[in-house]
Amino acid sequence: MEDDIENILWTSEDISNRVSELAAQLTHDISAVKSTELPVFVGVATGCFVFLADLVRRVSLPVSIDLVRVSSYGTGTLSNGSPSISSDLKLDVTDKHVVLVEDIVDTGNTLCWLIKHLKSKGASSVSVCTFLDKPSRRKVNIELIGKGKFYRGFECPDHFVVGYGMDFAELYRNLPYVGVLKPRCYQGVKEELPKN
């Protein structure tokens, strides 16, 4: 797999340090809000699973955890812009603060759609914690709910990246770092690259 990586953007050490910083910030900010309700961390499967696991183990608060599975990529490399839920929440988020955990935010379409979905389920506020953020690709303004905040691990250049839970065609998720995938690995895909 390593032969398929053009260059490494963030090492496992870089990632570990940044995840610790994010967890500390989330712990501080959530603690500052006086609430009897435990926050619910909702991971957007499948890409967030490594980040979510590392993040919640470093948050020094009791939290509930759930997953939602949303698809907008299919088998390609570009979002098709039409998110759909294939597996919804099991927990009731009514009147709760939700921290939506993403692997990467680029256009913002899926994220905005998910925030509206959580609002329709009764969440009192929604924060977003994304491992990677590609603001250069943003097509919509992300509007959080209530006292929600936007947290990001790293600002990502406009390349197709894999590792640390992120994939191409369900491969490379288990790489302990984030790297740029070599173009030869996705040749034949009929969509314009590079994108996540």
From TrEMBL:
<keyword id="KW-0660">Purine salvage</keyword>
<dbReference type="GO" id="GO:0009845">
    <property type="term" value="P:seed germination"/>
</dbReference>
<keyword id="KW-0963">Cytoplasm</keyword>
<dbReference type="Pfam" id="PF00156">
    <property type="entry name" value="Pribosyltran"/>
</dbReference>
<feature type="domain" description="Phosphoribosyltransferase">
    <location>
        <begin position="18"/>
        <end position="168"/>
    </location>
</feature>
<dbReference type="GO" id="GO:0004422">
    <property type="term" value="F:hypoxanthine phosphoribosyltransferase activity"/>
</dbReference>
<keyword id="KW-0460">Magnesium</keyword>
<dbReference type="InterPro" id="IPR005904">
    <property type="entry name" value="Hxn_phspho_trans"/>
</dbReference>
<comment type="pathway">
    <text>Purine metabolism; IMP biosynthesis via salvage pathway; IMP from hypoxanthine: step 1/1.</text>
</comment>
<dbReference type="GO" id="GO:0006166">
    <property type="term" value="P:purine ribonucleoside salvage"/>
</dbReference>
<keyword id="KW-0547">Nucleotide-binding</keyword>
<protein>
    <recommendedName>
        <fullName>Hypoxanthine phosphoribosyltransferase</fullName>
        <ecNumber>2.4.2.8</ecNumber>
    </recommendedName>
</protein>
<dbReference type="InterPro" id="IPR050408">
    <property type="entry name" value="HGPRT"/>
</dbReference>
<dbReference type="InterPro" id="IPR000836">
    <property type="entry name" value="PRTase_dom"/>
</dbReference>
<dbReference type="GO" id="GO:0046100">
    <property type="term" value="P:hypoxanthine metabolic process"/>
</dbReference>
<dbReference type="GO" id="GO:0032264">
    <property type="term" value="P:IMP salvage"/>
</dbReference>
<dbReference type="GO" id="GO:0006178">
    <property type="term" value="P:guanine salvage"/>
</dbReference>
<comment type="similarity">
    <text>Belongs to the purine/pyrimidine phosphoribosyltransferase family.</text>
</comment>
<dbReference type="GO" id="GO:0000166">
    <property type="term" value="F:nucleotide binding"/>
</dbReference>
<keyword id="KW-0808">Transferase</keyword>
<keyword id="KW-0328">Glycosyltransferase</keyword>
<dbReference type="GO" id="GO:0005829">
    <property type="term" value="C:cytosol"/>
</dbReference>
<keyword id="KW-0479">Metal-binding</keyword>
<dbReference type="InterPro" id="IPR029057">
    <property type="entry name" value="PRTase-like"/>
</dbReference>
<dbReference type="GO" id="GO:0032263">
    <property type="term" value="P:GMP salvage"/>
</dbReference>
<dbReference type="GO" id="GO:0000287">
    <property type="term" value="F:magnesium ion binding"/>
</dbReference>
